[in-house]
Please model this.
Amino acid sequence: MKKTALFLMALLVTFSLFSEEKKAVVGLNPGVALKQVNTVDKKLEKWAKIKAKKGTALFKKKDAATKEIMDSFIDYDFIANYLFDEKWKQETQEKKDELFDKLRKLYTDFYLEKIVYNKSFERKFIEKGKETKYIKGVPESVYITFEIQVIFKGKPVIYEFIYHLHFADKGYKMFDVEMDGVSLIRNYKKEFKKIVDKEGFDGLIKKIDNKLLKKKPSTKTPKKTKKK
Model:
């Protein structure tokens, strides 16, 4: 009986050690996440330095390369599921693909055009760490804080950026960015929910297109022409 008890205790200890070891390998490591972020940013900055006019073969190559880097780094699938909940699951695959593409363009426009491609881009590491239940659906994640300086309208501006990443697909993927305390994913969730509730996914796609084109939707009613 004692031998059986000792064997069970040894088995439990072994299992516990194995679980901890597995967690250490697959679990959260802010240092590893930071290295991955730096690797991704170096790849993006390399392409950002290449000047190319829109429509040229070089521009298409640059655009495709940067999007491929972003796709490997940002967890768009998690973002889409978080933003739209059950409505996303109920939508047709065709509509999902269309909206998914718009989300990619929206994030790419924000992250690349506004930040990385800025000629004065300078980034300074501040801190890194772990967090528990930062957002629904992600029980554990890591954060990495940077101070980023860019030039907007001819003036230097300093922002605090926090990247939020979780472990997925054998590496870390970013699911949110905070800029000066404002969460991109939480902000979009509130904004998009209102639009989808009123206008559906088609209405949201139009709104995203307007954002990408930097045009505000017209609220004015067209003037009636007077009959002669």
Remarks:
- Confidence is low (pLDDT under 50) at residues 1-26, 215-228.
- Helices lie at 2-26, 30-48, 57-73, 76-90, 93-116, 184-212.
- Residues 125 and 146 are 5 Å apart (CA to CA).
- The radius of gyration is 23 Å.
